[in-house]
Amino acid sequence: MENINRIFEIKKKGAETATKDDIPMSLNLMVELVNTNPEIQELVKGLTLTGVIELTDINETLNMSIDNGKATYGKGSMANPDFFFRGDLVTIAKVLLGELDAVTAYFTEVVDADGDLEQMITFMGVMEIALDLLKIVPKGEMKTIIPIDTMKELLQAYKEGPEAIKPEHVPQFLNVMAAFINLNPEAQEEIEDSELNIALKFQDVGDFYITIADNKMSVSEQPFDGNASLELIMPLSTMTDVMFDGDAVSAYMAGQITVNGDLSQAMLFQSIMEMLIDKIEI
Question: What's the sign of the alpha-carbon dihedral 261, 264, 268, 273?
Fold first, then answer.
């Protein structure tokens, strides 16, 4: 009860009041929930997950592992963890309190990560349930740019390979791409002062309409009021290949993509797609 009260105190006063002892306390509380709560037990059933959290400003390293329903926590690093998650104490506290979405933190580069992004997202899913159970952040109020389940599904398909990509993964990929572009400093610099209306037409999936303006990207299934500045027409199989290797140019040269409009805009679209692919292949 003392640990829970401390978390509520930090939540009320702000993550800036967290101390170096509060992060291990939060992880220890999460371990207790994983090992005792039926809902979390069902989520982690058969799961093996290891992660290392590095508090960069205080030179503190913590680890947590889950092995078929049994969670443990410790100080120090570990050999070959599934992922590393690095950030300063306040930022990590915000993530653990549900004030900062881990994907947002990663895309904006306020934290650094290495390893298996899908496993990191799974860890955040466990944390989301824990915050809901403790009534710290009800699940419907969790601040996320992309629902954790959606992100996990896309990453799982991405891990399995091109043959696992289905039509429903295309809008998921485009929405993750929009979130990345709208948050990532490098991507923001890449699209600065650009204005694009891109019609993506998949012969066996459907059409999607992408607007890039005012350093923001949005995705819709509703046609533009006016004309598209760029139209890209391709089958799902070609989009799948591009989603994995980012090489739309080769597909275009091979006649697999029809481009109507400004070719320089197509090159910009490929450039920001490559940035996302590099980011999710951690």
Answer: positive
